[in-house]
Amino acid sequence: MATRKTSPDDLLGPVTLAVGQEDLLLDRAVQAVVAAARAADADTDVRDLTPEQLQPGSLMELTSPSLFAERKVLVVRNAQDLSADTIKDVKAYLEDPLEDISLVLLHAGGAKGKGLLDAARKAGAREVACPKTTKPAERLTFVRQEFRTLGRSATPEACQALVDSIGSDLRELASAVAQLTSDVDGTIDEAVVGRYYTGRAEASSFNIADRAVEGRAAEALEALRWSLSTGVAPVLVTSALAQGVRAIGKLSSARGGRPADLARELGMPPWKIDRVRQQMRGWTPDGVSLALRAIAEADAGVKGGGDDPEYALEKAVVAVARAARMRRDG
Fold first, then answer.
1. % helix / strand / coil in the chain, to the nearest 5?
2. Under DSSP, is residue 82 helix (H, G, I), strand (E, B) or coil?
């Protein structure tokens, strides 16, 4: 029985267990094994199987010795959905796996099919974590790692702007990082990300908010009209405005200190502390209150409380920009 724990670096180990529900990471786990196998043997036979395709007895046929002694990679997707009889076949194989066959089990990681999961771990399978990314901080970490993997440098602001622009889809984030590293020389900064992805909904709404909280009403209104014309949802704009003003309110009432200390206290990344510090120069506590009331009115307007959502947003943008200048104009 294979009880020795396979090294995480041993891509040609007899069993790889990819656990989680993040499709991109699951696919990458498969691709890494296939690439290693084909590097060892260009004629490697790869079989990508669903639970429906792997019926009782099928695994025995697939793992039977070949006349040509070729290397094989057997990928079993959604292993938690295998039938009870097929799971018995897989467990039996795990007790004595073949050297020239790489079995890759993709398992969602929940309670369903846990017996197979435990058996693979007990057999010493090489395990790859593929958790679903549900938090913005996790997606930010993913983007940073993508740039590092490609050997490129990107500023913290650029990484955050990319996450804000693309959203939660890791495939799209990975694709965006690959495109930027391919097209752009040198360090990738926020301006570069803005040029490439300013048309995305989230990026557009945060661009509007940034201009508004900086007191640049004309630029904020121009960005608002462009965004709405490209289909950006009004609720994204009110959300971004609220986030921008609340960040100013939080930082203005916080004790002084280093960005890292304030970041921990306020739950913001350090780079955002620096940005909000620059944006808050014209703000007063009364200005924050006025701006938040205006945003609340606009939010009610865009969610059905008014007849003209666009006008409600324009009023809010102007109110926020005026509030941003209260200290300077007072």
1. 60, 10, 30
2. coil
pLDDT tens for 260-280 read: 667 667 776 666 777 788 888
Measured CA to CA in angstroms, residue 313 lies from 147, 231, 265, 295 at distances of 36, 14, 31, 8
Rounded to 5°, the CA angle 205-210-215 comes to 125
- Give the CA dihedral 86, 87, 93, 98, nearest 10 degrees: 80
- Report pLDDT digits (tens) over 226-239: 878 777 778 888 98
Cα–Cα nearest to 126, from 17, 34, 31: 17
CB 104 within 8 A of CB 33: yes
Rounded to whole angstroms, the Cα distance separating 14 from 73 reads: 9
* E-only strand ranges, the chain: 15-20, 45-49, 72-76, 101-107, 126-130
Q: What integer is the mean pLDDT of 60-75?
A: 83
Which two three-digit tokens encode residue 23? 């499709």
- DSSP string of 168-233, one letter each residue: S-HHHHHHHHHHHHHH--S-B-HHHHHHHHTTSHHHHHHHHHHHHHTT-HHHHHHHHHHHHHTT--
**Strand order through the sheet with 15-20:** 45-49, 72-76, 101-107, 15-20, 126-130
Q: CB count, 10 Å around CB of 7?
A: 9
What is the Cα–Cα distance from 68 to 268, expressed in whole angstroms? 59
CA atoms within 13 A on the CB side of 272: 22
